[in-house]
Amino acid sequence: MKKILAFSALGVMAALGFTQADEARTWTQAQGNKSIQGKLIKINGDTLEIVTNSNKIVKIKQSELSQKDQDWVKEQGVKAADKSTIKLKPSANQLNIVYFLGSDREPVEGYEKRLSDLMLYAQQFYGKEMLRNGFGPRSFGLSMKSPDTVNIIMYKAKGPATDYPYENGGGFKASKEVNEYLDANGLRKSQHTLIIFPTFYDDKNTDMTPGGVPFYGLGKTCCALDYKFFDIAHLGEKSPKGNLLTKWYGGMIHELGHGLNLPHNHATATDEKNLGTALMGAGNYTFGLQPTFITPASCAILDGCEVFSTNPKQEFYKQQPQLTVKPLNITCTDKEITIKGDYKSDTVVKSINVFIEEPPFGVNRDYEANTFTAKMDSKSKDFSFNIPMSEINGVKGNDFQVRLQFVFENGQLIYKPFNFKKDDLKPINE
Ligand code: ZN
């Protein structure tokens, strides 16, 4: 019996392509002969981010490693970093995953295994980004049926699939039904829900051109789709199925970000150069094909997200915190924007994020917003940000907005926007 179990676990790992890439390896310096053991989780410019067996991040310069290590990184580093897995802390709350069937539909074949693999990979991606950004090995919790199978709730809808299209509020209608169903049947694990719809099959949509169904975020619920080739085996493949997977899987992971409280934001200049595209910028088009990462500010929001919490006693999104922010002291030169202030609240502020962008502002006009973050962990504190102009991609004109976002321990987010003209902020003697 034991043998069979071990064999089947290996089979799963091989199917995911994890056998080779996911082993901790030994990294040795070219000079000094120091070595460490660990898994590569990110290539950040010349820096390799290695996670040790005790979940510590060690940063090593690629150029200082032995030739053998450098060759390995060149050959398989990117793939290995993407596929490596870390040991995540168990979450106190889990994301609800619902498979939404119109009354006239059946699930797409193999859905349970394909979606389980995709969700576990996504969980690792978020978890590694949280660890890299100093928030520990935490990701969204998943309710598991077995170690490699995610618990997917099958929901048979009231109406046929065409009653829930992409347009005309189809997602809203589906979301309402699903949330009522979760509550009525005691199935809810958290306030965050991912609904997956099998693609329409009609004159426009097939397994190679899936669509027709809702695909967007609706508050804490988000919608994605399933089709026959929605399979981790195609991730990074240079083929029509590989490109299709990036579109719909990258899309799902981005929409899931919205469902986990994330707004859009853009990589800073340095992060873009070293780490690639921000998931909540245009990362839905790059995930799996080109380097994609989660910004520190997005991770700070996830730090306060219900399904990332490891504390079963913490309540989320209930009480609206009281917050007062003293008028900001902002100066702006050609080199940097300096923001200083202080706040008081009745609830612990975990972090403050700063969004900087040019007009127009608002939902879906925020892809270009650059973000910066600072940890607070206090009910009242002074804060200050020095933001180099060279890090900001989007602010070319005179008008810009500084949006402070307060991330509270109960998951609430409060925005304080301030509009400025650069000219008004220049010190007089400059
Ligand atoms: Zn989006």
Task: Provide a quick synopsis of the model.
The protein is 25% helix and 30% strand.
Structural summary, described in words:
It is a single chain. Strands 5, 6, 9, 10, 11 and 12 form a 6-stranded mixed beta sheet that branches. Strands 15, 16, 17, 18, 19 and 20 form a 6-stranded antiparallel beta sheet that branches. Strands 1-2-3-4 form a 4-stranded antiparallel beta sheet. Helix 4 links the parallel strand 5 (94-101) and strand 6 (141-142). It is built from 8 helices and 20 strands. The chain has 3 domains: 7-83, SLA1 homology domain 1 (SH3 type barrels); 94-308, 3-Layer(aba) Sandwich (Collagenase (Catalytic Domain)), CATH 3.40.390; 323-427, Immunoglobulin-like (Sandwich). It is globular. Helices cover 25% and strands 30% of the residues. It is an alpha/beta fold and 430 residues long. It has helices at 2-16, 18-21, 67-83, 111-132, 170-184, 240-259, 269-275, 296-303; strands spanning 25-28, 35-44, 47-51, 57-61, 94-101, 141-142, 144-146, 149-150, 153-156, 193-198, 217-218, 221-226, 277-278, 292-293, 323-325, 329-332, 336-357, 370-388, 399-408, 413-421. Bound molecules: zinc ion.
